[in-house]
UniProtKB/TrEMBL annotation:
Pfam families: PGA_cap
Lineage: Bacteria, Bacillati, Bacillota, Clostridia, Eubacteriales
Superkingdom, natural source: Bacteria
Family: Belongs to the CapA family.
Stretches the record annotates as Disordered: 26-46
Alphabetized PROSITE patterns for the sequence: PROKAR_LIPOPROTEIN (PS51257)
Stretches assigned to the Capsule synthesis protein CapA domain: 55-319
SUPFAM superfamilies: Metallo-dependent phosphatases
Organism: Clostridium amylolyticum
Residues in the signal sequence: none
Protein name: Poly-gamma-glutamate synthesis protein (Capsule biosynthesis protein)
InterPro entries, per the entry: Capsule_synth_CapA, CW_Biosynth-Accessory, Metallo-depent_PP-like
Amino acid sequence: MKKALSLIFVFMFIFSGCKYINLSKDKNNETPKKNQSKDNSKEKYSIKKDPNKIRVTAVGDIILHETQLISHYDASTKSYDFKDNFEYVKPYIEEADLAIANLETTLAGSKEKYSGFPVFNSPDEILDALRFSGFDVLSAANNHIMDKGTQGLIRTAEVVKSKGFDLMGIRENTKVPTYVIKEVKGIKFGFSNYVFETDKKGSSRTLNSIKISNNALELFDRFNYSELEANYKEMEKRINEMKSKGAEVIVFSMHWGNEYERKPNEYQKKISKKLADLGVDVIIGGHPHVIQPMEYISSNVSKKNTLVLYSLGNFLSNQRREIINNKYPEDGIIVNIDFVKDKDSNKVQLDNVSYVPTWVYRKPIDNTKFTYKIIPLNEVKEDNNIPIDEENIKKAEDSYKETINLFESYNAKPVLAPSLK
């Protein structure tokens, strides 16, 4: 108990005004029940919104591995339910004016076998969980979008839109755009999403070493590390097109970088500088499956700063230290990007960036099933209702420290977000 109290006082001293989740053991707490999805968020949380600010919230990769599929299948109803994974982060997502996530899977349907790595096909019910949590926009141009071929890509786009989401990066046909124009509280945002190609096979372009069919070439946005100059021209055209449709803030979601590397590579830095010069305001990265730092890059053209979040890490997955001998894929962040519009100049400015460290909690239910919870690590309170067993307390504390240290060691330091109490 002394150790827990000392940790609390240290955190309070460093981040005054913030409250955190108490990760200390409580004998009265019980392990979360299987498929528990009770939503008490509206009773537990409230926050005063600034009517003059627009908050865009983003999270990292949503991935469903085989063990997760097994764990969330109900044989009695022959259906899946993933809502309970998100119950503790739901209030943070709902506080956003617009919330974004990266859907790193395909939704090819039940006729295709549901599967995890290396060929992903997930149940449509994951979308119900994301809707339940408060997400509005999904990115889907990632290295697994061709796992079930062209028809898998097309069905993914159709189902995502049918569930009420805006979708960037892919499309079901060439009559609709792959980008999103979204107006939020009087500000128009333009969202685009690109994924890196892999090496060609003969004359065929590939994604994750899968040949891209001719029919699919125009259905999702890609770039190639060996063809960047041509890609930049296409991206500039896209930016201008979104601006011509009224976009005041340009956001690019980039699927890039090296897996499991906690620092951006030279390509990420190079592309970011070019996108800043082209007029992109915010860059949100994914694919490394670990958190990478953020920075501001000054445009050589406009002299404005572009916010670059190189990688938000995994928001939900089964990638864990006991499976891949790496603890960092368990970590993620919820990043809040606040904008304001000047009443006199009518120009939109980035006002503030804050974040919530997250960690994927996993505990066995039986020999084949596990409980999964995304834990927001920025809350520590004595009336904690998030039960974490003693074995996982140290892992959660370690995750919290590692994420904070990563951001503190870089040149741009976002603000640690307060709890929503």
